[in-house]
Amino acid sequence: MVLEKKVMTKGKKSIGRQRIEIKELDDRGKQQVTFSKRRTGLFKKASELCVLCGAEVAVFVFSQKKNMYSFGHPNVETILERYLDGKTMSDSSSSSQELVPVDEFNMQYDQLQKDLEKEKMHLVEIEKMNKKMKNTNVGFWWDEPFDENMGLEEMEQYMKALQEVRRKVGARIEEFRMPRTSLMQPMNMPMGLGNDFVNVNSWESNACGGFLCWNNM
Any transmembrane segments, and where (predicted)? Predict the structure, then answer.
């Protein structure tokens, strides 16, 4: 078996069609890859025949390992039964009821194609976002570069936000340090930390050399 292939050379006109010999592949890996691709192509062509011409088709393919693959429209069983029984389409009322209208089949196919394109675009956007996050090393908001043009009022708000975060973190740490029996104590009760006593709700912060410090420490 031979196929004709039109050969094009760069910067030159076509030299016409040449015959390419079709012969069995020696490499087992290439055989499996080719079998998978050609089987998919065969089923695709059969599907197009059903859609374009309203044909009823059944295709059976067996691999070298005796695995069977099939394609059928409206389904393999109906086509096989009609073939074995010798019935025509007019003889079988049930088979005609199972047929899917060509227009409906085309609409479903087009919708699936659109959904597939949307998913591909969504995946591309996600990959772009992940790549951007890796390049910018996005972290916590306090890790962002400090704005030198920030005014006094904005800096005070920024400092209050940091103080609030530290207060909540300190309260959370104290919850973990508390014994199980004292978990029900009100948060304004003094709790021992070594030789000192700290009231969680009365923590205050002052600026000490550019750092935040507690007045009880």
Answer: none
Q: Helix, strand or coil for residue 150?
A: coil
Joined tokens for residue 25: 């592949």
Region of residue 24 (left: phi > 0; alpha: psi -120 to 50; beta: else)? beta
| 70 closest CA partner among 44, 43, 49 | 43
CATH topology of domain 52-111: SRF-like (3.40.1810)
Task: Please state the pTM of the whole predicted model.
Answer: 0.35
Helix 102-136 vs helix 28-53: angle between axes, to the nearest 10 degrees? 130
Q: Which two tokens stand for residue 10?
A: 């760069």
Residue 164 parent element (H or E): helix 152-177
Rounded to whole angstroms, how far apart are CA atoms 212 and 210? 7
Domain definitions of the chain by residue range:
52-111, 142-207
| Type of residue at 161 | A
Count of other CB atoms within 10 angstroms of residue 80: 14
